């Protein structure tokens, strides 16, 4: 009987021991993972609203001008004015309230992960969102992907502050999770969002079991919310291409090597233009805003008669893959978009460079594909496969994240059968860019930002 009575006491003791252990255990990892899921969902919502908002503003701009301006000679100046006003709004908000919201914002997040840059979410979130609506809606050659990454990381910092977490490791983990959620939302590509953090931000990202789980959770929940709002279709619905024949694979290696050179040229020209713009601005808000109006207005006016040259670039990708252009037109569009994209981004506008890079890569890949078709008529060549390979190759050469570029393009286009030529092209581009002394674009931009901050601090203390 005593043995029978001791069993419930033993069970109770075990039960209370479990409760005591649960109460005394560190619940920070669980809290971080739950917050990562919440942050991912919020980023998916905000990122979707940002995408829909930029499309709406752009549509309203074009439709309003076409509706109220009937004289064909006045359409171009009217579009210039409408686009200039939208762009000036974005530039003014950046210069007046949140200078760190200029550009894509990804270097700012890399700096924040190293505790070198502040994350002032109460300024960045409204300025980046509203300012981005202005500059992207004006028709400038910018992407919404970098801004969505910065928005995601700032939303993470907001939740970190609201829930009064104290440890810096949790802050870094949530910043990375928010950034991954941002890229996943922008491209509807969760795996690319995860790889971007692991590969591009590898010097800043602090690897641990919790941080990796948080990044996965943030990317997945963001993608789920995005697809609930926008559907499950790939961002670029360009159809399916055949797998590249084995005898053509060497052509993709040559293409990748050429992209290594193009990537180096793109980065250096962009950085040169940025230095020229900064020298002209002299930290004066009037010059900054007026230059933004000039660039935005020009892009809007150009879009009236040559829409392929301006805008984010998704439309020109669809037209290129659909064989809508001759090789001569492709060369002209490539040269013009090279100029408009570098000018738009280096001027300090709140906007990214991802989608313009993808469009440039598509155009150059298409040019190469037509040339290969002419030189090797006996090969079973589809020009579109070179265009798709080109998307990831230019990204790999400039950002120096080949694995992210490969997966990103495959997820965006659903052409997974092209993984082998994609790998060959991206690796070739990365190797040549590295051999020529090129450096990752975002790392260089962060270094220049830190140098300017140090000079300003030194001047203010003098």
TrEMBL record:
Keywords: Chloride, Ion transport, Membrane, Transmembrane, Transmembrane helix, Transport
MF terms (GO), sorted A to Z: voltage-gated chloride channel activity
Compartment list: Membrane
Major subcellular site: membrane
Stretches that traverse the bilayer: 32-53, 73-94, 121-142, 174-198, 210-229, 249-273, 285-305, 317-339, 351-371, 383-410, 417-436
InterPro entries: Cl-channel_core, ClC
GO cellular component, as recorded: plasma membrane
Keyword Cytoplasm found: no
Membrane topology, record value: Multi-pass membrane protein
SUPFAM superfamilies: Clc chloride channel (SSF81340)
Pfam families noted in UniProt: Voltage_CLC
Xref: CDD domains: EriC
Protein name in the entry: H(+)/Cl(-) exchange transporter ClcA
Organism: Providencia alcalifaciens
Lineage, uppermost ranks: Bacteria, Pseudomonadati, Pseudomonadota, Gammaproteobacteria, Enterobacterales
